Every structure is written in structure tokens, then in C-alpha cells.
Amino acid sequence: xxxxxxxxxxxxxxxxxxxxxxxxxxxxxxxxxxxxxxxxxxxxxxxxxxxxxxxxxxxxxxxxxxxxxxxxxxxxxxxxxxxxxxxxxxxxxxxxxxxxxxxxxxxxxxxxxxxxxxxxxxxxxxxxxxxxxxxxxxxxxxxxxxxxxxxxxxxxxxxxxxxxxxxxxxxxxxxxxxxxxxxxxxxxxxxxxxxxxxxxxxxxxxxxxxxxxxxxx
Length: 217
What we know:
The protein is α/β, with parallel strands linked by helices.
């Protein structure tokens, strides 16, 4: 399968999962997030081991101390990540919330209601904990997510993603609601930016260079 075929398959499955997730009741999404937080805690040793691989590779590549610190996951940081997901579970569900009401002179009442966006592509850099943060916020708002983290954190982010997907499955929701680009090939990012048929919003989280590239594409 070519990279383009892989990306299209990713988009299709995300679109299908987004429909299911958009209809999920608040308690089911809350259950998924709590289960994901539990999975992160249960697999903290696996996350730490994967992070050690990323840290060694980063040191061999000559990453700066600041970049290595961003990449590092300590037991305290892993617990903070799990706690963050659990805290999102406790937030009020935004789906269906009335944002604004306008009464027209003809008696018509217009209500603005919050609804899920659909599929959100999120591109971020070295911090592996963003995998959990981004996935949790998308899930809470009823959106499917396609994640693309920095190549430096590929192994760490992979295990964290598995924990988020385990949470979805535990709550009876499709694991495809949270996916990631399964390669560090930069060409895949360009493809993601052009997948308008499947991806509704692109969110860049990183430095000026990342944001400029996405703006140009």
C-alpha cells in the first residue's frame, strides 16, 4: 500500500469513527477518558521504556538539552499526563450546549448550539504528552483526531496512543476515533493538509516554523 493509500484509509476510518463519536452520550465519553487515564497509569512502565528509546535516539542525534527535556517523560510527568486526561473527563460536555439565543422581530427564535467539528488533524512537535492532551480534548468534544507528533517522540507517543485507544474500546467506542500518522515521513504531513474530503480542521501546535509551513500548504 502506498503512503497516499495509507493516508486515505486513515481518513476514511476517522470519518466513520467521527460520526459514531458525535452521537455518543456524555457518560460514554467520560467513561472512555477515565479508562484511558487508567490505561496510562497501568502502562507507565511501557511508556517509560519507549521514552528511553526516544531519549537515546535524541541524544545520538545531538538534540539540545532543552529539546531533550521536552522529550523526557519521568514518572511524575506520566502521572500528570494521566491526571490531565482524567480531569478532562470531569469537564462539562460541550456538545449540545446553547451558546447564543436570538429572538427575531417576526417571533422566530434562533439558537446557536455547539456541535462536533468532525475530524481534526493535529500536528505537534516533540512533547509526547501532547498525544494524550490532544486526544482527550477531541474525544470530549465528540471529534475524531488524526495526530502527527514529532519524529523524536515516535515511540513514546505510540504507547500513549494505545492507551487512549484502549480507553475508547473499554467504553464501546471505535478506537479509530483517535489515530496517528503511522510514519515519520514528512511527506505524510503534506498529504494530511490536503485531505479536505476527510479532515475538517487542522490544528498546529508548535513553533513559528511549523505554523508557517501549514499556512503555506
